[in-house]
Each structure stands twice: as C-alpha cells, then as structure tokens.
Design brief:
Elements (H helix, E strand, L loop, with lengths): L5 E9 L15 E10 L2 E9 L10 H7 L3 H5 L4 H10 L2 H4 E5 L3 H13 L8 E4 H9 L7 H7 L11 H23 L6 H4 L2 H7 L3
Parallel strand pairs: 1-4, 4-5
Antiparallel strand pairs: 1-2, 2-3
Helix pairs in contact: 7-8
C-alpha cells in the first residue's frame, strides 16, 4: 500500500539586525513558525508558535517594529528543539514534501540547527514555490508572496509577516498554480478540420 506524501507549507519569521549597532557575528534566528500540513489536498493540521532565540535573545527595535512582535511573546515561546520535534513527529524525512516561498526559510533552519547542535530534519523533497511561480509565468524577477496571490486576483490569508498566515497563503498559491498546470497539461481538443479530410469533400463537389 502506497503511503500518500504529506506537504508541509512552512513559513518562518526571523530576528533582524539593527543596522550598524548589531554585533558583527549576528545571524538570523527563527522566532516564529507557521506550519500547514496537507494530505491529499486537505489540511490535516496547523502549527503556530513563537520561538525563543538563543544566540541573540534580545530583539532589536527594527525587528519588533517590522514584525509587530513583542519581546515577551518571543520569550514565552517554545524552544528551537521543540520546533524540530514537530518535524520528527510527522516523519518529514521519510514522507514529507516541504514547500516554502523562497529559500531563506530552509537556509536559516539549517544554520540554526548547526548552531544549536541539532540534526537538520532533511526533507525528502523541498519545493521553492517562488521559483516554480517564476518559471510558470516566465517572470524575470521573483515575486513577493502577497503580490503573487494578488496577481491571481486573490488576497492573502490574515496578516503578512505572520508565520501561520503566510504559510496558509503559500498553500493557497500552491493550489492555484497546480490547478493551472493541470489545465495546461490537458490535450487540446481536435478541430473538425483535423478529424475530417476536407480536401476529399472539396474535390468531390468541385465539379
């Protein structure tokens, strides 16, 4: 019996530097995670939590302002180890397809794992939906998440730069793109001219 794959639509929000006042060794850490788990095109679970940063636990003013996030919310959040436990619970390595908008989410996840000495939950397959979108529409530049969904005549779910809302928006775009791919993959119906040799009919009545 073939086990159907799980799609993990993931979005992370990261710590941000405060320009020149930030330490030179600064690197982004995950401080909010949104995960939408889909099986056979149905959402079977959602996960959302704030994550406590370890290397630079104090958020910069720029980060708090841009993400509209408070220091307390982050301090009261889960540990990074608990986030990785979610991946391991769903056996991402064996049957998971991770879908993100852009490649930063997985890069930061990998770097955070290395920093904290935790094994990276390597997915079976990773899909950068922003690249899929770019190739599908022939765009020269990569499009932002919410601009992409608006180009479909839709609106994003909830608020931009909230991890779970962005993960849900990524899932919605994925469905729209996959629907268009299936539509374009269908063979075009033959015309009546292709089904009937019109030259024989014209020759018959030419006299």
């Amino acid at each position: 019996m073939k086990i159907s794959p799980l799609h993990f639509f993931i979005d992370f929000e990261f710590t941000m530097s405060e320009n020149r006042s930030t330490p030179k060794n600064f690197f982004p850490e995950i401080i909010e995670a949104g995960i939408v788990i889909v099986e056979k095109d149905k959402i079977i679970n959602q996960f959302s939590t704030y994550i406590r940063p370890k290397a630079f636990p104090t958020l910069t003013n720029r980060c708090k302002s841009f993400l509209n996030i408070s220091q307390k919310k982050v301090q009261d959040g889960a540990s990074f180890k608990e986030l990785i436990h979610i991946f391991n619970t769903y056996n991402v390595q064996e049957r998971g397809i991770v879908v993100t908008w852009g490649n930063m989410d997985m890069k930061v996840l990998k770097h955070n794992c290395e920093y904290q000495g935790i094994a990276f939950p390597t997915p079976y397959k990773h899909v950068d939906l922003s690249l899929e979108y770019k190739k599908f529409f022939g765009d020269q530049n990569q499009t932002g998440l919410w601009k992409a969904v608006q180009e479909y005549g839709k609106e994003g779910t909830g608020k931009h730069h909230r991890a779970l809302d962005d993960a849900l928006t990524t899932y919605n775009i994925f469905r729209l793109v996959e629907k268009d791919k299936r539509y374009l993959a269908k063979p075009m119906p033959t015309t009546i001219g292709e089904r009937i040799d019109l030259t024989k009919i014209l020759n018959k009545y030419a006299l």
